């Protein structure tokens, strides 16, 4: 070895310093269960109680979209305006600083919010992440002797402010109580008798709370020689007392009409817009949310400590209890991962000891591994990496690879005394890093989950190169390990010779039938004939050739099924039986979700009563740890059930799911869904979304809707179309909404001296023009809300048949107009401020005829659409979509990276092709493993594919590189003999590396396939490695040797 003892000592000291730095930085790493990286997008959400989608879009969405367009880096803006709520999705260009963009969005919202109508909630901002949502870190329940309103007020004033100041806390929100308000229930009939309009009353009430500046004046203050300049205001309101019934609202025949004369005024608790309960109890809950970059375990400890300090100052009779702690599951999962990683490491070290039979050898491996990990921690910290599920997977998988590099270098130094093996180690490491680099080119949602997995592995493997090149030689200088040459050594040599003769005979036979064996492996992998379409749409020459051959009816009826079975191979079984039925999921506690949906027209109270019945049923089971009920609006609610740790993995969750399903069926009256374990249940019958869709786009919603109605009428003229609907977007199983539409007869209204405005004003007074006015009273913000006394019981029969007062006469609305209930897409969708409507319908008949009808109607509507409007058919995708093309290009990218690395190392343009041939054979192992054992293919399976692209070629690299080195020493010897010799040199370390990698993954199979990510990663990697071993032993020599038969006999074998 070229190192002297002084340089060895210096190198060891340097690595020890890095080891100490890494250990000191370890507590500073952010630890959580899932990654918190952000997608380049922001969602802005808001609500406006009892508003229609059209009004919400016009008054709120359009204004916000207009200001958001001015933000730098905006790529696209999409919005949805629905009844009572809406949201805007802002997508940014890659590389945009999301912290700056979020600040800009928040600033613009603060500027625009005062201009929005009263009653609109303050918009919330949510940065898009991989799991599309934030989750609570801690939930506390507050109890006290006071009313819920005052308990919540105390929490907001005395608890939230202190907890929010803790570094790492994103938000603290308090739920459970509704604020009090002044309800003014005016009498619509009395207003009409007095000849007053509700609009006049609202203006009078609004003016009562306003103050107007009159100017400035001088006030002589007692004890001062000079006067004080003060502003003078005029106000109707007496600040010393508040009597809403004495608010003047008008004058009728020399008489002042007060608000109390026309309305009943009550100070009452505001009606809830939503509900949130824990264990079915109406308690005050304080929810703590963590920042995305915070160490959740450390932050939870800080919050708990602060709560303990605040408990001392709680008023008498008040208490605060921790009802939910997300860190318990995080600690459990991370503990489970740490245990498996430790077990994996123990198995690897025992394997090294078993092979080497030397404690010093084991000590060198252990020291190099610990220093490797500690140095890697320094780079984790510098790059701001988080330690979560996928990062831990990268650390665990790379353990075996780091040990492999050390083993190869130690063995080469022991027997050869030089560091020439580093070139092969470098190439093998670079191929793995090259395959991992494909993750950086994935779609944003996939990349956000796997990028830390790739970065952790790249860092660990890069550091392992420095360990192999510098630390291992330095340690061997201080702790030499001399090879043993005893009887066992020579006995092993004789066994190798016997194996070589048998192995050469097998290769001779396979080389003679080389073409047949290549065909076998190609068919074992499979040709993607099952992806071929039945027909190609087009008029070109090749389109015709395809349609007359593979697209012909004879091929489709007689040959296709057999061809797919024979030629499809393992790829077809995997694609049809595994990949098509697989799903991605997130690691979380076993939970049961009960979803309740009320039909259209239901009230929040009705849904709440139904959910309470289900809560009472669930509360009977002691095995349940907690259940949280969330009711967002009058139609949708959810109960999320978590179980005690001892029953999480037992049969009880499945038993409870069946019991809840029976209860849901027996209740009726609404739609129920039960999901989380086993096969999900749902009795919801969604209306069909139609098998044909035509999309229309334009800048004016009203005009666009008129064109959509014209298209709908044109479609319904066709005998094969019975039903057509106008919706906001393409949706399969659409939840269509209904609304009452007013169709008036213009000539009749003219004869009766009436018009739309008169009818609208009457309905506005009767049905209630709900409005609110906010004002300060004794330092507290109060709300005064006006409602009609007839709004709650005025039905459609009364609307049609009761006489309505219009100016000087009374008329029946049924004589002037028709009111019809129609399907409509109440949700309004926009993209880049362009409205979108979809006309969907079911065409009864063959697909080709349906396509002709679709194209004809698109052509007709395009002829009448003005500039700025357009139409197009819905995109259903194809057998080779854009995402599939991206995947194909990424596979080619990986192959290209590996090819160039191998070409540089091997100094050949042909030999790398043999190396790359190992990749598809290892993929057969993945296909067979998932298909034969019926495993779910999730994120771990995808990571296994990426990982195998790198590690499956390492063995071929070692052998071919050694073969080339031997060729330079003896150019006259045959390729076959050189390959056999290189194979004998490298097969043992190859077996060691493959077995060590497999053993390192075995602990992650112990918990079964319910374990998200880990099980699929381990199973896929193990299956691929086993098949890569078959490829190395039997198929690699077929592709790297020539003239095998002649060479063998000429050399005397």
UniProtKB/TrEMBL annotation:
<keyword id="KW-0472">Membrane</keyword>
<protein>
    <recommendedName>
        <fullName>Multidrug efflux pump protein</fullName>
    </recommendedName>
</protein>
<feature type="transmembrane region" description="Helical">
    <location>
        <begin position="987"/>
        <end position="1006"/>
    </location>
</feature>
<feature type="transmembrane region" description="Helical">
    <location>
        <begin position="454"/>
        <end position="476"/>
    </location>
</feature>
<feature type="transmembrane region" description="Helical">
    <location>
        <begin position="888"/>
        <end position="906"/>
    </location>
</feature>
<dbReference type="InterPro" id="IPR001036">
    <property type="entry name" value="Acrflvin-R"/>
</dbReference>
<feature type="transmembrane region" description="Helical">
    <location>
        <begin position="9"/>
        <end position="29"/>
    </location>
</feature>
<feature type="transmembrane region" description="Helical">
    <location>
        <begin position="389"/>
        <end position="410"/>
    </location>
</feature>
<feature type="transmembrane region" description="Helical">
    <location>
        <begin position="337"/>
        <end position="355"/>
    </location>
</feature>
<feature type="transmembrane region" description="Helical">
    <location>
        <begin position="422"/>
        <end position="442"/>
    </location>
</feature>
<keyword id="KW-1133">Transmembrane helix</keyword>
<keyword id="KW-0812">Transmembrane</keyword>
<feature type="transmembrane region" description="Helical">
    <location>
        <begin position="913"/>
        <end position="933"/>
    </location>
</feature>
<dbReference type="Pfam" id="PF00873">
    <property type="entry name" value="ACR_tran"/>
</dbReference>
<dbReference type="InterPro" id="IPR027463">
    <property type="entry name" value="AcrB_DN_DC_subdom"/>
</dbReference>
<feature type="transmembrane region" description="Helical">
    <location>
        <begin position="1012"/>
        <end position="1040"/>
    </location>
</feature>
<dbReference type="GO" id="GO:0005886">
    <property type="term" value="C:plasma membrane"/>
</dbReference>
<feature type="transmembrane region" description="Helical">
    <location>
        <begin position="939"/>
        <end position="960"/>
    </location>
</feature>
<dbReference type="GO" id="GO:0042910">
    <property type="term" value="F:xenobiotic transmembrane transporter activity"/>
</dbReference>
<feature type="transmembrane region" description="Helical">
    <location>
        <begin position="496"/>
        <end position="527"/>
    </location>
</feature>
<feature type="transmembrane region" description="Helical">
    <location>
        <begin position="362"/>
        <end position="383"/>
    </location>
</feature>
């Amino acid at each position: 070895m070229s190192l002297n003892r002084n340089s060895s000592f210096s190198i060891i000291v340097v690595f020890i310093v890095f080891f100490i730095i890494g250990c000191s930085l370890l507590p500073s790493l952010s630890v959580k269960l899932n990654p918190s990286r952000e997608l380049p997008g922001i969602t802005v959400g808001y609500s406006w109680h009892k508003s229609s989608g059209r009004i919400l879009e016009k008054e709120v969405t359009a204004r916000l979209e207009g200001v958001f367009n001015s933000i730098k880096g905006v790529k696209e803006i999409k919005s949805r305006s629905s009844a009572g709520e809406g949201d805007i999705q802002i997508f940014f260009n890659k590389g945009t600083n999301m912290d700056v963009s979020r600040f800009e969005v928040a600033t613009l919202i603060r500027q625009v919010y005062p201009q929005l109508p009263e009653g609109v909630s303050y918009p919330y901002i949510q940065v898009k992440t991989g799991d599309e949502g934030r989750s609570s870190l801690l939930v506390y329940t507050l109890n006290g002797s006071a009313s819920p309103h005052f308990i919540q007020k105390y929490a907001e004033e005395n608890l939230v402010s202190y907890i929010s100041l803790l570094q790492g806390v994103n938000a603290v929100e308090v739920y459970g109580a509704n604020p009090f308000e002044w309800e003014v229930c005016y009498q619509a009939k009395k207003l009409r008798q007095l000849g007053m309009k509700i609009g006049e009353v609202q203006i009078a009430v609004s003016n009562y709370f306003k103050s107007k500046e009159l100017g400035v004046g001088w006030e002589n203050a007692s004890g001062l020689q000079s006067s004080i300049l003060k502003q003078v205001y005029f106000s109707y309101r007496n600040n010393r007392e508040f009597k809403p019934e004495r608010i003047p609202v008008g004058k009728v025949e020399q008489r002042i009409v007060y608000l109390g004369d026309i309305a009943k005024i009550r100070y009452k608790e505001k009606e809830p817009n939503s509900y949130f309960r824990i264990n079915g109890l109406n308690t005050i809950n304080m929810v703590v949310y963590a920042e995305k970059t915070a160490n959740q375990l450390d932050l939870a400890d800080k919050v708990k400590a602060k709560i303990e300090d605040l408990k001392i100052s709680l008023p008498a009779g008040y208490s605060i209890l921790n009802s939910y702690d997300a860190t318990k599951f995080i600690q459990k999962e991370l503990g489970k991962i740490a245990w498996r990683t430790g077990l994996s490491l123990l198995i690897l070290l025992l394997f090294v000891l078993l092979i080497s039979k030397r404690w010093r050898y084991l000590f060198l491996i252990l020291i190099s591994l610990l220093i490797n990990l500690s140095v890697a921690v320094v780079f984790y910290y510098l790059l701001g990496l988080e330690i979560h599920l996928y990062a831990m997977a990268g650390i665990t998988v790379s353990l075996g690879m780091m040990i492999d590099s050390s083993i190869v270098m130690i063995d080469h130094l022991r027997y050869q005394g030089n560091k020439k093996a580093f070139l092969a180690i470098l190439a093998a490491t670079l191929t793995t890093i090259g395959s991992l680099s494909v993750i950086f080119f994935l779609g944003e949602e996939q990349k956000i989950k796997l990028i830390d997995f790739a970065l952790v592995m790249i860092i660990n493997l890069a550091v392992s190169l420095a360990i192999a090149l510098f630390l291992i030689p330095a340690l061997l200088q201080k702790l030499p390990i001399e090879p043993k040459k005893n009887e066992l050594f020579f006995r092993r040599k004789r066994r190798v010779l016997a194996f070589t003769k048998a192995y050469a005979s097998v290769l001779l036979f396979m080389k003679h039938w080389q073409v047949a064996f290549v065909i076998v492996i190609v068919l074992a992998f499979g040709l993607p004939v099952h992806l071929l379409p039945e027909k190609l749409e087009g008029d070109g020459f090749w389109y015709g050739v395809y349609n007359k051959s593979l697209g012909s009816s004879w091929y489709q009826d007689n040959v296709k099924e057999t061809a797919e079975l024979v030629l499809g191979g393992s790829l077809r079984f995997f694609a049809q039986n595994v990949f098509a039925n697989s799903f991605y999921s997130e690691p979380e506690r076993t939970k049961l979700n009960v979803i309740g949906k009320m039909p259209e027209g239901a009230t929040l109270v009705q849904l709440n009563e139904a959910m309470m019945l289900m809560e009472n049923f669930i509360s009977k089971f002691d095995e349940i740890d907690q259940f949280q009920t969330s009711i967002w609006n009058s139609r949708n609610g959810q109960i999320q059930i978590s179980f005690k740790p001892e029953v999480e993995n037992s049969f009880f969750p499945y038993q409870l799911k069946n019991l809840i399903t029976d209860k849901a069926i027996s209740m009726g009256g609404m739609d129920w869904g039960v999901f989380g374990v086993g096969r999900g249940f749902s009795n919801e019958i969604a209306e069909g979304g139609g098998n044909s869709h035509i999309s229309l786009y334009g800048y004016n919603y009203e005009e666009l809707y008129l064109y959509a109605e014209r298209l709908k009428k044109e479609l319904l003229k066709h005998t094969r179309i019975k039903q057509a609907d106008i919706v906001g977007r393409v949706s399969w199983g659409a939840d269509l909404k209904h609304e009452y539409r007013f169709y008036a007869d213009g000539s009749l209204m003219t004869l009766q001296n009436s018009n739309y405005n008169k009818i609208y004003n009457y309905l506005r007074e009767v049905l209630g023009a709900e409005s609110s006015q906010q004002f300060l009273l004794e330092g507290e913000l109060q709300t005064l809300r006006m409602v009609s006394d007839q709004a709650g019981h005025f039905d459609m029969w009364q609307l049609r048949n009761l006489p309505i007062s219009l100016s000087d006469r009374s008329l029946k609305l049924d004589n002037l107009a028709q009111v019809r209930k129609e399907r409509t897409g109440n949700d309004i969708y926009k993209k880049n401020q362009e409205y979108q409507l979809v006309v969907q319908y079911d065409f009864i008949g063959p697909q080709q005829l349906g396509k002709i009808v679709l194209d004809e109607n698109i052509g007709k509507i395009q002829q009448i659409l003005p500039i700025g409007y357009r139409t197009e058919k819905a995109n259903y995708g194809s057998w080779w979509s854009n995402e599939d093309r991206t995947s194909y290009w990424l596979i080619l990218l990986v192959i290209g990276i590996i090819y160039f690395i191998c070409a540089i190392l091997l100094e050949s343009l042909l030999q790398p092709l043999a190396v790359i041939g190992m990749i598809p054979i290892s993929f057969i192992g993945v296909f067979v493993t998932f298909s034969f054992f019926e495993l779910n293919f999730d994120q771990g399976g995808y990571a296994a594919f990426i990982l195998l692209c790198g590690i499956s070629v390492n063995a071929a690299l070692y052998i071919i590189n050694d073969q080339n080195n031997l060729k330079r020493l003896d150019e006259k010897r045959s390729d076959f003999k050189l390959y056999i010799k290189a194979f004998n040199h490298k097969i043992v370390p190859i077996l060691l590396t493959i077995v060590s990698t497999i053993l390192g993954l075995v602990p992650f199979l112990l918990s079964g396939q319910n374990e998200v990510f880990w099980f699929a990663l381990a199973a896929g990697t193990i299956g691929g490695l086993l098949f890569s071993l078959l490829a190395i032993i039997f198929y690699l020599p077929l592709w790297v040797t020539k003239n095998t038969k002649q060479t063998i006999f000429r050399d005397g074998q």
